[in-house]
Amino acid sequence: MARALKNPFGIRFKLVFLSSFLLVIPWLGYQYILEMEDYLRRGQEQVVLGTARALATALNERPELFDEGTFSPAARRSENLYVYPIYYPLALDDSSLIDWRDYQRYELPYGRANTIATPLNPQSEFSRYYHNDESLNFSLLVGEHNRYLYAYLKVVDNNVVYRSPDSLSIHRSDFLQISMTSRDNRLHRYVISPRGPEFIYAYELGNDLRDIGSLTHEERISGQWYETPDGYVVELRMPLNMLGERLGFAIYDVDDPETRNVTAVVATSDVNNKERLGILLRPTPEIDKIVEGMGHTNSRIQVVDRSNRVLLSVGDIQSASGLSLVEENNEQSRNPYWSYIEEHVLHPLYYQILTKPSNDFIEDLYVGSTLEGAHLSAALSGQAMTQFRTIDSSQTRILGAAHPIFADGDVMGAVVVDQNMNGLRTFRNQALETLFNTILGVMLLVAVGLFFFASRISSRIRALRNQAEKIIDDTGRLKNTIVASRNSDEIGDLSRSFYNIVERLGQYTNYLENMSSRLSHELRTPVTVVRSSLENLGMTVSDRESSVYIQRAEEGINRLNLILTNMSEATRLEQMLQTSEKEKIDLARVLAGCIEGYRLAYPDAVIEGDLQGPVMINGVPEYIAQLMDKLIANAVEFSYHKKPIVVSCRVIKDRAVLRVTNYGPYLPEEMKGRLFDSMISVRPQEKQKEPHLGMGLHIARLITEFHGGQIRAENIKEYEGVAITLLLPLLHE
């Protein structure tokens, strides 16, 4: 029967492979969360549009809020400070005014006409008209973004004098004074007096500039002081909640580093008199009051006029995620091993397919100080609209909603509310991470369970296979049985079926094995009767013809008796081997005695010995002689006439090697593996002089195995002949 191809995929692999189809469950969960994200996105779109609609409704029918004349420099007084809306955050640490480039056309100059008298330079209030020094002047611009007031002073000074490194006084060098009223209408004065180009460090003054003990640090004012070829620049920021209705700036100039006296002060207004401070004017104060209440919507809100110019901007698009996610503070309760696996294994795997939101992006809808976009164009045309757009650099999605503002039937501007979708995307990612973690955990448990279940099944099947392979030995005889399983499943039923089959097969084999001895025993009695009858008949019959028939009958009886003897020989030998005891013998000496006897028994055969001894083994000499009888009888019968039969014995690699070779016909290839089985013979039927049942080499194999050795037959390649080789273990003393 053709040998079945070995399948490399066992039951365990197949069960684990089939369990992999359960991965469709994470895919379904992923699709469900994407649908949920779509619903949330639609809801967020309606919320943003509703916010824009509410603000636009509050600003409707108020055309004065969009009067462009409030931006005109010709309409301003020099004491008052105009605040311009800035639609993006300004960098205060880049030592340049590049971020102000869209607004620098609104800056105002201050110089000789704006000098004032202070306690540090006591001059009359009319000194400005007689001050001819052009060495000190500055330009000022004030803006607002996200509830912060930004300002810069670009100062021209031919001799900049900084505060000494070891000086505590703040009035004996060039410095900036900021005066303002708070919301409770109290005057507050602050001084910035650096020791060189550096980040500014503001102090709040007491009643006297020269009183060092009254200075207190004000950390809410931040910015930078840096030098330019013709002077220096002061760029600063402060929160709007510090300010009331009035604000002023003054530059104090010291030219002589030795005397360190203030020589001139150029200011926007009288910074030491609350009543004469300039008024802080904002082009959209009413709009700001209306929008200020909407500043907690986690959105960026902008008011745009019909020229696409941004009048007011509240909020930062980078932090305007719309959806607020509060993470539970459970870091201490989390398993550190699970956290490590999640961070270094699961998250890198998940974010191969997920997009991780980033707030590090720059919006590209602005041109100068104006805003563009399809949603804004539609709103300025009178139609509310929402728009999703993607910033390619960070894959961040922005949701914008624009709603028109009407006055007398005309569109005066629009309210634009923007949110980034990072909050929603973060929520989606967290939901997917939780889903994937749960499903992967369940899948892992299922896969491990299936693996152990398949391993259990495989081990039981393999145990049954191993028992089945051990039932029959190399000679085809039953030597073991199968242990019947008590399990009630299909494998248990198969085990019990095999057990019943082996039991019945064992009984039948035992019957066949004992049949020859029983048959031999039963036939000997009638053979004896026939033999005795023939002998008696031979004594009474005297004629020649009857004597011939009686002689032939006796030859048949002898032949039948030989057959019965051969049939029972193997069985008797097996029984004798079970009770025999081995002894220490010299194999070479036993073989030498056998060879001498064979030369006498077979005078026509040429029998040679090649013995190298002593070869000590543990065995029985009589059985060795019986084994040699069978081998020599075979060799004599199959040898060519006058060709030698060689019996050799020597020690090779701790084993005794006994070899009987003869010149004769080759063994058939198909019989080599079965030559030592019972009832196997390769003699042609017509050449058999005596009955042969194929038991000789079988007996030789039984004796060899009794001595713990191996026997094999092979054809000799050098010449036409056959060699039978025995390998027997040596006796280790």
From TrEMBL:
Q: Where does it live in the cell?
A: Cell membrane
Write the record's keywords in alphabetical order, separated by commas: ATP-binding, Cell membrane, Kinase, Membrane, Nucleotide-binding, Phosphoprotein, Transferase, Transmembrane, Transmembrane helix, Two-component regulatory system
Q: Which residues form the HAMP domain?
A: 455-510
Mention any Pfam family matching this sequence: HATPase_c
EC nos: 2.7.13.3
Its Gene Ontology molecular function terms? ATP binding; phosphorelay sensor kinase activity
Instruction: Enumerate the InterPro entries for this protein.
Output: HAMP_dom (IPR003660), HATPase_C_sf (IPR036890), HATPase_dom (IPR003594), His_kinase_dom (IPR005467), HisK_dim/P_dom (IPR003661), HisK_dim/P_sf (IPR036097), HssS/ArlS-like (IPR050398), Sortase_His-kinase (IPR022510)
Q: Which GO terms describe its cellular component?
A: plasma membrane
Please report the name of this protein according to its UniProt entry.
histidine kinase
Q: Which organism is it from?
A: Pseudohongiella spirulinae
